[in-house]
Gamma-secretase subunit APH-1
Amino acid sequence: LRPAPLPRRAFFWLVSLLLASLLWFVSVQLSDRENANLQYGLLVFGAAVSVLLQEAFRFAYFKLLKKADEGLATISEDGRSPISLRQMAYVSGLSFGIISGVFSVINILADSIGPGTVGIHGDSPYYFITSAFLTTALVLLHTFWGVIFFDACEKRRYWCLGLVVASHLLTSGLTFLNPWYEASLLPILLLTLCTGLWAFSTAGGSFRSVRKCLSCKR
């Protein structure tokens, strides 16, 4: 037995994106479309709702996997599931990150087709390289959030769940500082590093295990 393929896990993220998009679309249609400040506020609102829905569907996927894990343990010979919670957390977070990164990079690649060239008319020449780093950070963050989130749900550490949601909201909010890339990219990369260390510790990693790995000792 092995974890469900990527399309099934990514389906939960896609549903959350669809619901958030529908909510934002309806809000825009019912509002004053000539009011630029209002439309910007609705965009921020839509991004926040999208984050909350993503985390809600992450929790729903955890509950689904938990039920499946209990069923596998029931029918196994030794009474244990062949798939660990950490494995499920990793593949779930990675699938969320990959599909999120794919959707992010599609729009960027569409801009790269043209017309025109980035850097002309005052556009930042660092648009594409910065977007690449942001997309990479987002994929890693979703992977780390998945590990931390599942562990927090299993151990009922609600403050960890709150920190995951808050860091996700913070990451999404920082992207609104673009094209002031120094103010968005650097904090997001720092947050990625800190979250990665947290996820590493949550998964049972330690400095000792890193030394054993580097020295090729069992």
